[in-house]
Amino acid sequence: MRTYVVSSILIIVGLFAIAYRGTLPTTSGAIPYLSELSSALMVGGLLSILFKVFQEKQAEQNLRRRMRIHDSVDELGLVEIIPESQGYNYTSLLDTSDSLCIVMNDGLRWVGNNAVSLQSRFSKKDSKTEVFLLDPDSKFTQEISAKFSTTPADYKKKIESTHTQLLDVYNKSQKRGSLVIYKLKNFPTRSIFLSEHTLVETPYQTASGRVKIPVYVYRKVARLDSPFSFAAQDIEALRNEAVAAHTKP
Q1: Cα Rg, the chain, nearest whole Å
Q2: Which of the chain's termini has less CB crowding within 10 Å, N or C?
């Protein structure tokens, strides 16, 4: 606003200079100076207004772009992105959700890290927990074991150890909730933790070895093309093709 006011004053003063010049005799020595002054004031004022208009247009475009990004994020339900998966605390998700579906390749480390919260969850009345793991006898164990520089036999034992550990945690609980462990036909391309209101995803790297991987957290939204809805549909399809290995109680 200040720029517009100052520019307007410059233009008005320039116009007054032109008007005053018209009242002077043609032989007056002030006429050349008044001509230059009025031109400078009016040009300066007009350029200032044009520059301000350009700045505001750019700012408006930036704002519109940022608003579109914000709207997309909000409509699709993205809550946060955590750079490293170990920085995410699954306790709240395990404690507060009534229904929870978990999809992993082997999940041994994750189950070990969250054994206490899992035991508390299994003690929660009417809680429902479904865990989808790669079939230990799947042909994909060979490819995945090579990716992590281990043997198919050792990777098979790792998956079977996850089954054993989950059942052991369940048996130590009050057994008031249910647990179903499924064997997957295909290997997951990402870890999925889906409750009735939250989706947590961690992608799997394509290259060999292990690196720090991010965590994406989404909330449930109305859009049917949201990541939450996609994950829910994916898990529904998994139930139809996976094999239930263990069911508790």
Answers
A1: 34
A2: N
